[in-house]
Each structure stands twice: as structure tokens, then as C-alpha cells.
Amino acid sequence: MAAKKTAPHGLGRGLGALLGDIENESELLHSETEQKGDVVQTVPLSSIDPNRDQPRKEFREESLKELADSIRAVGVIQPIVVTKRGNRYSIIAGERRWRASRMAGLNEVPVIVRDWDEMTRLKAALIENLQRDDLNPVEEALGIRALMDKCELTQEAASGVIGKSRSAIANSLRLLTLPDDVLALLKDGSLSAGHGRALVSVSPERQSKLAILTVQQGWSVRQLERICAQPEKKPVETPAPARRPAELGQLEKMAREVFGTRVKLDGDENKGKITLSYMSAEDLERIWDVLEFIRQSEQ
Predict the structure, then answer these.
(1) Residue 100 and residue 96: Cα distance in Å, rounded?
(2) 95 catalytic residue (yes or no)
(3) Residue 235: is its pLDDT beyond 70?
(4) Would you report the helix, strand and coil content of the chain in percent, each value rounded to 5?
């Protein structure tokens, strides 16, 4: 039997603990390490269906083209791992190879058929993708959540399966609470997972604003963390002026007409002031005359 390989990304006992009967998780995921009973078959590409539970939602065109060029030159070196459903095959691991093979114009590809039940296939497909570097942070978080939901795992149990700390899993899942526009920036690589974790700590109102500023200003994760740690400055709200009774407005207008100058009334029915303005000696004399007339009328 071929020498055992070390599982990448610290998977540790993850798949072995999860699947039990698989001695080494790299044997599960990498078909070049043969398991007892494995037989490499050649099947038509048209008979193979992608995995509907595939966590990876985006396959980079440039990367697929490079793989397709390699397949044209040397063929598919690593067989695709599939399970059989009637007359068709469903991919467990190796969808990139399947897509690149179609791009390369192949009619058939080598496969290894594994007779696993649906739950085992689901676990293997999810973990096979979670261990890869090129999953974006949102795909990784969605994959972890799907694994936990469909396999009924707690964060602690998922930690043992995936080989990541419980806090790392919790931080990944928190990214899914971010608004859609921020998730889009995480998906296309404009923001890193570190940026996303920093944004989770601020209010929803600030998350989108700071995400856009981070992209525009090119802030590092450390810079964004410092900004997120600063208290949010709330705008000072100017109280709206209280609506005064219509009678006071009429009084202000009457005084303006009587004195023939600018009049301003501040206050309410109980307390306030009336200000008379004059712009010249003539204005002042006119105000004097009106007041003198009123005083004499009262005598």
C-alpha cells in the first residue's frame, strides 16, 4: 500500500473521526492513494453530474483554463471520485477536474466509484472543499454551516471534524451576518476574511460604509481594526423648533405693520420677547412716534 500522506491544512483526525472506517483522510480525498477495492474506471463525461451540495459556487475561469491546458497535454492524472446513481455518476471530489476536462474537449475521464451512503458523501464533499486554500471566506463559512446543519454538528464537534479551532469556526460563521454588499466584496477578494471579522464588531450601519472605505483607501486589516475600535461619532441632533400658535404669528405680523420695521417674536403664550429692529434714525423716530401715540391714547 502506498505510504500515507499528511492531510493538508491541519485536518488531523477530522475525516477519520467523522467517517470511522477510513484509515487516512487523505485516502478519502485523494484518489491517487488507493484504498482497498478501488478500481479506476473510464466513464463518459456526459454521464457525470456535479455535486448539488458543492460549497464552491464560483470556479475561476483562468484557473480552469490552466488546468484544461494541462489535461490536454498529459490527461487527467488524478481520477475523479464519484458515486453511482442508477446509470449516472455524481461527483464526490474533483469537480474542477470534471469542468476542466469538458473545457479540454475530453469525452471520457478516469473515475473511482465509492459506494458510500448519502450522509458520508455529503460529509466528504464538504470537507474536501473546506480543506482547500482557494475557497473564498463566504464559501468556507457557508460550507461549515451546511456541514453543521446537515450533519447536526455543534461548533465543538465541527471543530474536531474540520481540524479548525472552535473560535475559528465561530469567527467564520459570524461573517454570514454581514450585509450582502459586504459579502460580495469578500467573495470577489476585495476584502479578506480578516477585514470581515473586524467589520462584524461594528454596528450594521457602519459595516457597509467602512467596507467601501477599506477598498477605496486600501486599509490593512490592522488599520481597519483600529478604526472599528474607535467609538462611533453620532451627529449632534438640533432640536426642531417648537411650533408656535398661529396667534403669535399674527401678533408678529401686526407689530411689523404698526411700527413699519422688522419685528421678531420669540417664545410662547407664557414667556418670550418681541424685538424691534431699526436701520436708520428715521426708523427709530417712527417707532418713537408710534409708542408716543399709544401712550397718549391711554391717558
Answers:
(1) 6
(2) yes
(3) no
(4) 55, 10, 35
